[in-house]
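The methods section describes the discrete structure representation at length, but only in general terms. What matters is that the chain and its backbone geometry are given together, residue for residue. For illustration, here is how one protein appears when written out as sequence plus structure tokens:
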Amino acid sequence: MAQTNTVTVESQRIEITGVQNARELGGYRTRDGTAVKRGLLLRTAQLGNAAPEELERLAETYRVAHVIDMRSSMEVAASLEPELPSAERHWLQIMDEQQMVRRAAPVRDVLTDPKTDQLTRLKACIEAGVVSDRMYAECLDSEQGQSGYREFFRILLNNREGGAVLWHCTSGKDRTGIGAMLLLSALNVDEKTIIRDYMLTNDFFAGELADVRSRLEPVVKDEKLLEDMLVGTRGVSERYITNALTYMKEHYGSAVAYLQTKLGLTDDDLTTLRQLYTEA
């Protein structure tokens, strides 16, 4: 039976100065009547802006055992991953970088020109399909995405010492959000909670998004286009996560069936994940 879960910034936030969109999956009730354990499953934006003492506090408070970086090679080069005391680091390529380069090729000049304003750059990304409400489903359908998330679950399954797992991309919303969606599905959390957890990004970035919206609204009258533009900055849209969930249902029957068919999770793996990360 689906549980009614509290999904708010206050209920999920983890306090770490210098790291945005920092929160956990702990506390959510599952359809089995259990709850996701607190302090074990952490999702954030990139860690590079945090002071060393803040990272040390994060590592000690949550006993972080694994840090999973889902950023592209260009993003990693632009902001190197800092060391987190005692944590094993993993770099998982989730997006097909060559495909992204090919997709952006027609608008490359616009995107790389320093004189290009934000409105023009965002429109170019949407027109080229770099930002699209199908991009999560495309990621789940791609060999690169499946390979990356397969490794994500391998790390989660091998984490037997009780330490926390932290995963992130740049803003902690898209690749990180897909990972949270898949993991919550594996833990048997209801879809409504999964969507609300994903949408929390808009609350964590509320100030930035309000500023961007105020600058775009006078010139962008189409609400769908405006929403896509906000996704191109710091926002998320329910269309994106719903399309991903629908893709898994239509092609595999359910999110769990997708996990089993494309990521290779067995019934025993699902049982192990629930034993490791949920409690009565």
Notes: The first helix runs from residue 9 to 12. The chain is about 50% helix and 10% strand. Strands lie at 23-24, 35-36, 41-44, 64-69, 88-91, 164-168, 278-279. The mean pLDDT is 95.
